[in-house]
Amino acid sequence: MSQGSKSARTPVLLLKTRSSPDDGYEEYFNAAANGPFLPIFVPVLEHKLKEDTLHLLYSTITVGGFSTKYGWRTQYGGIIFTSQRAVEAFGMIVGSVRTHTNAIDELLPPELPLYVVGPATARGLRTLDLKCNIIGEECGNGEALARYILQHYNDSPAQKQTFGGLPLLFLVGEKRRDIIPTTLQSQELSPQQRIAVHEVVVYETGEMQNFKSDFTFRWYANARTSCTRLWIVVFSPTGCQAMLSSLGMLDETTGKLKQGASLPRNTHIATIGPTTRDFLIQEFGYEPDVCATTPSPEGVGIAIKSFQGT
Fold first, then answer.
1. Same domain, yes or no, for 187 and 258?
2. Which of 27, 74, 111, 125 has the fewest CB neighbours in a 10 Å radius?
3. What is the CATH number for 269?
4. Percent of the chain, pLDDT > 70?
5. What's the DSSP call for residue 290?
6. What digits encode the pLDDT tens for the residues 293-308?
7. Minimal CA–CA distance to 132: which of 151, 154, 116?
8. pLDDT tier at 187 (50, 70, 90 boundaries)?
9. d(CA 76, CA 60)
10. How far is CA 168 from CA 74, 201, 217, in A?
C-alpha cells in the first residue's frame, strides 16, 4: 500500500471548526497527494453570532466610523482581530455593506490598520478583498501583538496625523483573555502612550453538545487502525478539558488527571501554543508531547515532525 493511501497516513485530529472558505491546517496537512498526514476536524466549540452587535458594527461602518473622508464622524483608528470567528463575523458585515454601497473603500479606507495575530487571521481578512493595511501576522500571540500595536500606532507619523489617537475597536468572543486591552492601557505607560480599546463581543461560544461522542468515535476509529501514530492537536483551554474528559482521563472529584491515566502509546498530544500547553499542565497535571513555537499550521507541523524525527 502506498504512503499516500488514506489508511497509511498519520491521522491528525484537529480540535477546531474548519475555517471558511479555506482552512490553513487542511491545506497544510493536505499539501501533497502523498503527504504523510490525514487532517480530521473535530469541532469543540459552537459559535453563535450576536445579531445586535453585528447591526451596530454595520451602522458604525456605514455612517463613516472608520472613514477618514468624513473626519468628524470617525470613531476608531483601527480594528483588532485575534480569532477566525471575529474575521468571519466582520466578513459578513463587509458583504452586507457591499450590497448597499459601492463606497466600501471610503468607508474602510487603505490607511485603516487591521491588526491581526497569526497568519490564519490575516489570510481570512485578505479574502475580503479590502484595501486596508493588514498587519501583525508575524506576532505569535496577543501579548506580542499588543507590543507591536503600541509601537506602530504611537510611533507612526501617518497614524498620528490620520487618526489622532482615536481608540481601536477590538472584535472579540464572549470568552477571551484581556492581555491586549490591559497592555495597551497599562498604567506603566504615559497617558500619551496609552491606546484606548473598545471591546465588542461579536460571537458567543459554547462546547458542542455532540463533541464527546464525535471525538471519542473518531479517536477510537483511528487509534485502532494499523497506523503507527495518531496526533490530537488542541487549540484552546476549553478543548483541553473536553479532550481529557472524553478520553476518561479526568477524576470527576478533583478535576485533575486520574492517577496512572495515560494514552495509548501511538496517541500523542500537540498544543497550538504555550497558553494551551500551560493550561493543560497547571489545571490538569498533563504535559503534552509537543507545543508549536508559532500558532500556525507550519508551527504545528514542524513540532510534530521534530518529535517524530521526520
1. no
2. 27
3. 3.40.50
4. 92
5. E
6. 888 899 999 999 999 8
7. 116
8. very high
9. 9
10. 11, 14, 44
- Is residue 176 pLDDT above 80, yes or no? no
Q: Name the E strands within 136-238.
A: 168-173, 197-207, 230-234
d(CA 65, CA 68): 9
Answer yes or no: is pLDDT of 242 > 70: yes
Measured CA to CA, the distance from residue 263 to residue 258 in angstroms comes to 12
307 and 230 in contact (C-beta within 8 Å)?
no
**Local structure of residue 128 (DSSP, 8 states):** T
Residues 127 and 173 in one domain: yes
Instruction: Answer whether residue 263 is part of any domain.
Output: yes
Full residue range of the structural domain in which residue 279 is found: 26-44+209-308
| Contacts of 130-138 spanning 24+ positions with Cβ under 8 A | 130/94, 130/104, 130/105, 131/105, 132/108
Question: Residue 34: is its pLDDT beyond 70?
Answer: no
End-to-end CA distance of the chain: 20
Selection from 151, 155, 205, 153 nearest residue 176 by Cα: 205
Report the domain count for the chain.
Answer: 2
For residue 1, is pLDDT > 70?
no
Query: What is the pLDDT at residue 7?
Result: 52
